[in-house]
Amino acid sequence: MIKNHLLLFFKKFILNPRNVGSVIPSSRFLANRMVASAMWEQAENIVEIGSGTGGITRVIANKIKYGG
Q1: Are 32 and 62 in contact (CB under 8 A)?
Q2: How far apart are CA 35 and CA 65, in angstroms?
Q3: How far is C-alpha 2 from the geometric centre of its chain's CA atoms?
């Protein structure tokens, strides 16, 4: 399943590189690193804008739900 997902993502990039900004989706390690740099204690609203595969959104949702 994961290989098919990565292959499909790569295929979409090859077919339309102007609309797909990466050859592979963001890793969970990148998502965790990006979310860790936010100042969560000061956040009143959270807006995540992107049309990716949802990896970063999942990390943000977990951070909000579980606080860590």
Answers
A1: no
A2: 14
A3: 16
Question: Position of tokens 């959270």?
Answer: 46
Residue 54: left if φ>0, alpha if ψ -120 to 50, beta else—which one?
Answer: left
CA atoms of 15 and 61, how far apart (whole Å): 31
The whole-model pTM stands at 0.64
Residue 50 identity (one-letter amino acid):
G
Q: What's residue 68's pLDDT? A: 58
Q: At 35, phi and psi to the nearest 5?
A: -70, -30
List the Cα angle 26/63/6 in 5-degree steps: 20
Residue 67 banded pLDDT, cuts 50, 70, 90 = low
